[in-house]
Amino acid sequence: xxxxxxxxEEHLEKFVENIRQLxxxxxxxxxxxxxxxxxxxxxIVTGLQDIDKCRQQLHxxxxxxxxxxxxxxxxxxxLYTKECLERALAKNEQVRGKMDTMxxxxxxxxxxxxxxxxxxxxxxxxxxxxxxxxx
Amino acid sequence: MENFTGLFGAQADPPPPPATLGFGPGxxxxxxxxxxxxxxxxxxxxxxxxxxxxADKSGVGCGPFYLMRELxxxxxxxxxxxxxxxxxLEHAYNKFCGKKVKEKLSNFxxxxxxxxxxxxSHDNSSLRSLIEKPPIxxxxxxxxxxTMLAGFRLxxxxxxxxxxxxxxxxxxxxxxxKHKQSRTQDxxxxxxxxxxxxxxxxxxxEEDPERKRxxxxxxxxxxxxxxxHPGMGSSQASSSSSLx
Lengths: 135, 244
Known about the structure:
The complex is a heterodimer.
Chain A: H1 2-27, E1 28-29, H2 34-54, H3 65-72, H4 78-116, H5 118-131
Helix pairs in contact in A: 1-2, 4-5
Chain B: H1 2-8, H2 18-21, H3 83-86, H4 90-98, H5 105-108, H6 127-132, H7 146-149, E1 157-158, H8 179-185, H9 197-206, H10 209-225, H11 237-243
Keywords (chain A): Activator, Nucleus, Transcription, Transcription regulation
InterPro entries (chain A): Mediator_Med10
Family (chain A): Belongs to the Mediator complex subunit 10 family.
């Protein structure tokens, strides 16, 4: 699993370094640099070939589109992971709170209804008792 | 008010037809229809009290209580379950939420050259545009032949100021430990409008092609031997772990 990422990372780093060196050559070009320039251009092609080969190993990797928003804004994509985890936890807390409140409400309602409609609530409890244990 | 008294008061006036009032006259509720196919049990339809509760999932007119339905089954995974512990993400949670995560993209990719903290919309390098307008993918990647390389014969001399973009590095805090790394990242000194003359003179000396070649050779040697530089073949553990 990690190896395919390592390969891709290696190829990408080489490619970026190649492009950077190409930029240095071009920024102040000399006639003697032509051979080097040609070599770098062909390295671009081979670099792209190598990156393309890595694609087959990574076809099952899914990336959420929301991460792209972070990257496009120049933000750290780990912030997306962080915010996902925080949101999941916050939602968990929220839903747990709702469920606890509903349970309390249910028990309170049954209690009060039993005072007003004792016979009906006895029937209800017996029916519910058959299906599910009282929670 | 006249219609009201007509309904509940006067006996002389006949009750108005249901259409004008919008509801029909009071009638006893019809007996519940028999369940289709005889139902799940052998309980007669007449005794509503003994009908199996929740058998009729529509909930209408079944059992002693109107709209009484079967409770949903208990599942292990609910919204109140701590999903982080359930999916064994505690380590990830501590890693990302325990300590402060730096805001900028350059903190995530420290070795990437150029101004990567700028929004992608500024220089048309956004990933969103790549998804919305994917490039037309042709065949395979073919090497550039001799005749094609003739098109890459450049004029000598430095680039005009407008094109000098990639050597502008954002100001970085150069620590002692990262001294080697910053040197390898930025061989050409950053060009800013505020450069003084003595810096330009230094640059002219450095741009001597022989010195350039020597510098490149030195860089290659450093890349091979330096453990910090991700460079030409070694992948750094910290950067690779951050991608996962």
